[in-house]
Design brief:
Blueprint lengths: L1 E10 L3 H18 L2 E7 L4 H7 L7 H8 L2 E6 L15 H10 L4 E7 L6 E3 L2 E3 L8 E7 L6 H12 L27 H17 L10 E6 L5 H14 L6 E6 H10 L6 E4 L1 H14 L7 E5 L4 E5 L16 H18 L2 H20 L13 H17 L2
Parallel strand pairs: 1-2, 1-3, 3-12, 7-10, 8-9, 8-10
Antiparallel strand pairs: 4-7, 4-11, 5-6, 11-12
Helix pairs in contact: 1-10, 1-12, 4-5, 6-7, 8-9, 10-11, 11-12
The chain binds 3-isopropylmalic acid (IPM) and manganese (II) ion.
Amino acid sequence: MSDHRIAILPGDGTGREVAVEAQRILDTIEAHTNHGFEQNVISCGGQHYLETGEEWAEGSFEYCRDDADAIFLGAIGHPGAILENGDLAGGSVILGMRSGLDLYANVRPIKLYEGVPHKVHGKFTQIWEPGMVDMTILRENTEGLYHSLLRRCADRALGRELYEPPEMTFPGLDGEVAYDPRPISANGTERLVRMGFEIAETRNGAPADGIKRVSCIDKSNVTRGCQLFRRTFDKVAANYPGTECDYGYIDAFMQWITRNPEHYDVVVSSNLFGDIATDLGAVLQGGMGMAASGNIGDEHAFFEPVHGSAPKHAGLNKVNPIASINSIQMMLEWLGRRKGVDELVSIAGLIDDSVTDHLKDGTALTYDLGGDASCSFVGESIANRLSTKLSEL
Ligand code: IPM
Ligand code: MN
């Protein structure tokens, strides 16, 4: 029996519903294998803040840092839940962990499964062929335009004094001015880019030509931070001569991933650019309901669906649980590699096979993919497929 301690942070809105489906996958694995999961469910987020005055109970951050082997987060964000200083209530959870646990890479795979349509203009169509879209975007996760807020959220989680950027004046600007510094460091970029090249080693190259390729996406024609980002990219890339380097500006990149997603294999970008690009990326894979992610550092990681709390759908049992199920897939792969337990990596592969079979079958899809199946029905049916595969092991 190998036991893994997992913090489950359901958070707000639909995060609570999809967390149940993530847990169902862990329960299924536990029922059929020697892997046990001690699941510690921690209430947190904006709604928890409105109810209790805290973003999460004292000691929660420390549990995630010191005790959990891995963390699952549903979603953070509740209407009206804002802290006194104007920051997002629940930020200590999502941004506090990103910064406070030094989770420098936000890894967001974008893969189009067979049977998944695209909803564009209110119609379900097949715009990109499955097999054309299979890339992983790495978004820097601890600095850039988020830096001040990330820092404050980590300060709250760690009980430190809150950081505020220094007062500044800007020549030519009068009246009230708000600004967000966007620090980009060589060290922060280097570790992100290195992880990008390492991930490229494990993949099959770009769908178009099978070439292993890492694309550096920035705005180095305009900002100094991006110039440093690109210089650092080149420095790291020199250690990976077998992988092709590719470059793009973020604005042009938005067009290219829409027109030629098959060109992309691994993409590295700074924090806000990666945030924006991965929402468009989600469209290529059938929408936010399909978008999984891992916030990964050298010591810790948390895994979350990209879709957020979607308050208007909350409590209706209708959102797509696949983003969460695939986040669990990423968690098991990470945990397996970290602990040197190959079986967990294989089980992650079986989750992927179960999702693939479910989507190919196409009879039970949630509303975002053109069906009317419920969140729990889809979660159960993928878990059942996984059960069958695990019992055949
Ligand atoms: C994401 C989200 C978050 C972000 C929000 C909830 C702070 O949009 O994970 O992409 O901007 O990073
Ligand atoms: Mn986002």
